[in-house]
């Protein structure tokens, strides 16, 4: 349990740095393709941190994460079925999973500023909710 807490704390620290960087970048008046790419990167980093925490918690419960092309989605489903996160939070996180997939496979100049703003606006509250549910 101590090892799990250390891993979660390390991920939490990294996510909070990414959240700070996201907030800083979102505050810039003009958002060129560079700022949009940075916002996308920070959103991607935050979601990866959430996935890393979920993987550690699931592993600590002795549950295997199936290896498949859809393991990211299965990770959310397992997290709900094991009572780690709520259905509502899973639905919210699914938006970031979808974005993560797009971000990994697209080009930075294809990022939509309006969509990034919505994701960036919501992620601090989603992160807080996630940490509350994980700490249960």
What's this, in brief?
By secondary structure, this protein is mostly helical. Helices cover 78% and strands 0% of the residues.
Walk me through this protein's architecture:
The chain is mostly helical and 136 residues long. The protein has one domain: Four Helix Bundle (Hemerythrin (Met), subunit A) (Up-down Bundle), CATH 1.20.120. The chain is built from five helices and no strands.
Oligomer: single chain
Series of H and E elements: HHHHH
User: Mean of residue pLDDT?
Assistant: 95
Structural class: mainly alpha
Total number of helical segments?
A: 5
Number of domains: 1
How are the secondary structure elements laid out?
Elements: H1 2-26, H2 33-60, H3 71-81, H4 87-105, H5 113-135
Helix pairs in contact: 1-2, 1-5, 2-3, 2-4, 2-5, 3-4, 4-5
Q: Any key phrases for this structure?
A:
136 residues; globular
